[in-house]
Amino acid sequence: MPSQFVTPDQGEFQRFDDARAAVAQLEALYEASCDFLCKAFAKAMKAAPEGGRIRAYYPMIRIETTSYAQIDSRLSYGHVSHPGRHEATITRPDLFRNYLIQQIELILENHAVPVEIGYSDTPMPIHFAVANDSRISVPQEGAAQFTLRDVFDVPDLSTTNDDIVNGTHQPPEGVAGPLAPFTAQRVDYSLARLAHYTATDPEHFQNHVLFTNYQFYVNEFEAYGRAMLADPASGYTSFVGTGNAEITQADAPLEASQKQPQMPTYHLKRADGSGITLVNIGVGPSNAKTATDHIAVLRPHAWIMVGHCAGLRNSQLLGDFVLAHAYLREDKVLDDDLPVWVPVPALAEVQIALEEAVADVTELKGYELKRLMRTGTVASLDNRNWELRETEGPVQRLSQSRAIALDMESATIAANGFRFRVPYGTLLCVSDKPLHGELKLPGMASDFYKTQVERHLMIGIKAMEALRTMPLERLHSRKLRSFNETAFL
Q1: Residue 240: inside a domain, yes or no?
Q2: Are 241 and 201 in contact (CB under 8 A)?
Q3: Do 105 and 19 form a contact (C-beta atoms < 8 A)?
Q4: 302-350, pLDDT tens digit by residue?
Q5: 305 contacts 427 by C-beta, under 8 angstroms
Q6: Is residue 241 part of a domain?
Q7: Is 224 a domain residue?
Q8: 103 with 160: CB under 8 angstroms?
Q9: Element (H, E) at 325
Q10: Is the pTM of this model over 0.90?
């Protein structure tokens, strides 16, 4: 270790064949690094530091295998793809405790080798180290008595990127391969962004995420949440709104956030994290990408879009449902990360859950269900007012693609689900028919919103509750995994 660095004791790597003990060690090492940096930073803010740089490191987990594992071929995760050393830097092991235990147990079972826990050589940025201590905040550059980056480490883009999940990461010869889809710094970055955009802490996010693009759904979600809190048998324990306001009683007041966040988010929680989170992403593919980019690090078990769309067929009526089984991607925001030539397949488990939920809520079955739900291609554009430009080109592409609906977010959410290996689905509700003279206008839409929002949201909730009962090894489809994957889900 260079003498100019002031660091805590690094210790030696320890070997574990028990997942819980391994995670406990990760927590101890992480807390030691954070505590060291927080104390050093608090001291530096009182008196400008003299001498060397102050540095602490993320903990890491690593394994080394010498043979290919004989694993259950039905399982899409829990094993490395080839012999060698594989490692991952870890942050917030307290937040990811259950996830880490599950993943490590699978590795121990499938490879029959111990995992090793110790400190990595990746510095922990001061911003992320103090994030869990509300008493400390990092001032902007120039506000302190010293130059921050001369003393402490700051976020480094070389370890804060999506190279692993994008499939472009190529470790040099002799360097360990990745064990997890995200590095610790990439996770920390997204945890900070989530708190900023949603005004709720990452701890509240549940494993099943609904995305919408209208506030109407939020109001209905709160009503449903209160109904569940009134039912002791529901399994739901609390409801969280923006500003981390949390209630456990159905009739308790929910304090409104003083400042409305960009993406208002609400959580109907269960003790094991298997509840439902609703995110109002607003309008546009950029918001859809931003939300899913950051929620992905929490490794949810499914996310589904329940929003409004333009119906493209004359036979459709306002209020009809559209179950997407393919996507025409003209949103453009993911082209650099996931080329448009990459197919985004429908996932049978999610599709079935959505279709059965529609049948359950509408009380229609079989051929009768086709009266109000169509399955087909959904097109997502990046221009909300595409109708105001020359329409011959877009309309021709929509026709050639056999698209039955048009929106701005669904393809982005599905494509990012594919990219991040998060099971995804889309169920939209027709709110206008621009090709047939039925533009979305306030007077025409009001009755539609009142009658359809509750039913639409309930379908999304029922689908998530069905997916919650599905074994993870079945839900996390092999369609989402390539032939050279990380062991961690």
Answers
A1: yes
A2: no
A3: yes
A4: 999 998 988 888 888 888 999 999 999 999 999 999 999 999 999 999 9
A5: yes
A6: yes
A7: yes
A8: no
A9: strand 321-330
A10: yes
